[in-house]
Write a structure and sequence with these properties.
The protein is an alpha/beta fold and about 400 residues long. The chain folds into two domains: about 160 residues, Rossmann fold, CATH 3.40.50.1100; about 210 residues, Rossmann fold (3-Layer(aba) Sandwich), CATH 3.40.50. Helices cover about 45% and strands about 20% of the residues. The protein has a six-stranded mixed sheet with strand order 3-4-14-9-10-13, with helices on both faces. A four-stranded parallel sheet has the order 7-6-5-8, with helices on both faces. Helix 4 crosses helix 9 and helix 9 crosses helix 11. The longest helix is centred in the first third of the chain and has 16 residues. The N and C termini lie far apart (about 50 Å). About 55% of the residues are buried. The structure holds pyridoxal-5'-phosphate.
């Protein structure tokens, strides 16, 4: 069985491009070109140079000794929290801005919920001197004021989406409308392994630098390239896709995906898509998503804004359905405790998204000699207020 996208962008039964007719030329241009552009020597050279000098890669693969002792197994952390801007998202936006330039685009649009992807996009647009418009729900603009300020400092225009629930999905609708109206000069940077083909595959390839590095770093440290398990949190699924990518076809490597159960899987306030989701279409791809009996998308909830998404990318839907991936959901409370524990044991304050991945160590037991790599997708600075409120710090 293959765990990568086929030519039409399908992972098993999931994926594809379910888009309005008017968006077809835009997606088609990208689909025809993305693989050949990525394979160009000059592209690879520029991409890797920027990952090194601007993002700060390779990020360390760190053996977490105190955490390993506590859970009686060998735990390595892949330190995506040390990337410029504080998370893995910039790996993808660097890749896409270079793609946009190669395709002759001089204007970038993006949508953002919590603002993290908006900041990562505004960052690379500043780097390249390219015009940037970020669509954001009006409610999110108020909730995420610091990220709005960051985007403005970086020179981006933040346009409020005022329709519907005034959150992420409305911002997405506005971005799509913009792209339809500006097909020639504009590239739409999507922030996770979601959206119509070729986005999930393209974003996974850009993020695959994570597992590419894990392989040689583990070889240096342990004399073997493959861990026993790779663990990552899944919102849309981009940090997870990057961490799994080079291990997908090696079934000796266990793949563990961690979703947000919010206040409990059956509380009505959760984002545990694998447990609750059904097959449907969201943002142009066929995947698993949380929906009502009549197919209306359910509002997701998680204490971590980055996991607060009603679906998962098609790669993850396939990993779930095929049984290749083990899916675990973690509540807000479990994640917050795991974040505090990592801070105290290792001196690393994680993003609350990443804390979800660490929380599985309480229930999922590993053997003493297992090598478990946990992808530490981002740092916790952005979440300080949530930690303060939760722990009354
Ligand atoms: C955005 C974000 C996530 C979730 O997005 P994925 O596409 O699932 O990786 C996870 N961790 C951090 C730190 C994030 O900023």
């Amino acid at each position: 069985m293959s765990y990568n996208a086929n030519e039409k962008g399908y992972y098993g039964e999931f994926g594809g491009a379910f888009i309005p007719e008017m968006l077809y030329p835009n997606c088609e241009e990208l689909r025809r070109n993305y693989i050949s552009v990525m394979k160009e020597d000059s592209f690879q050279k520029e991409f890797h140079q920027l990952l090194k000098d601007y993002v700060g890669r390779p990020t360390p693969l760190y053996f977490a000794e105190r955490l390993s002792n506590k859970y009686n197994t060998k735990i390595y952390l892949k330190r995506e929290d040390l990337c410029h801007t504080g998370a893995h998202k910039v790996n993808n936006t660097i890749g896409q801005i270079l793609m946009a330039k190669r395709l002759g685009k001089n204007r970038i649009i993006a949508e953002t919920g919590a603002g993290q992807h908006g900041v990562a996009t505004a960052t690379v647009c500043a780097l390249m001197g390219i015009q940037c418009v970020v669509y954001m729900g009006e409610i999110d603009i108020h909730r995420q004021a610091p990220n709005v300020a960051r985007m403005k400092m970086l020179g981006a225009e933040v346009r409020p989406a005022k329709s519907g629930s005034k959150t992420l999905k409305d911002a997405t609708n506005e971005a799509i409308r913009d792209w339809i109206n500006n097909p020639v000069d504009t590239h739409y940077i999507i922030g996770s392994v979601v959206g119509p083909h070729p986005y999930p595959d393209m974003v996974a390839r850009f993020q695959s630098i994570i597992s590419e590095e894990i392989k040689w770093q583990l070889k240096e440290k342990e004399g073997r390239e493959n861990p026993d398990y790779v663990v990552a949190c899944v919102g849309g699924g981009s940090n997870a896709a990057g961490a799994y990518y080079h291990f997908l076809d090696n079934t000796d490597v266990g793949i563990i995906a961690v979703e947000a159960a919010g206040k409990g899987i059956h509380s009505g306030e959760s984002a545990a898509t694998s447990a609750l989701g059904k097959v449907g279409i969201i943002h142009g791809s066929k995947t698993l998503l949380m929906q009502t009996q009549d197919g209306q998308i359910t509002e997701p909830y998680s204490i971590s804004a980055g996991l607060d998404y009603p679906g998962v990318g098609p790669m993850h839907a396939h990993l779930f359905k095929s049984g290749r991936g083990e899916f675990i959901s973690i509540t807000d409370d479990e994640a917050m405790q795991a974040g505090l524990l990592l801070s105290k044991l290792e001196g690393i304050i994680p993003a609350i998204e990443s804390s979800h991945a660490f929380a599985i160590l309480e229930e999922r037991k590993f053997n003493t000699d297992d090598i478990v790599v946990i992808n530490l997708s981002g740092r916790g600075d952005k979440d300080l207020n949530t930690y303060i409120d939760y722990f009354k710090l």
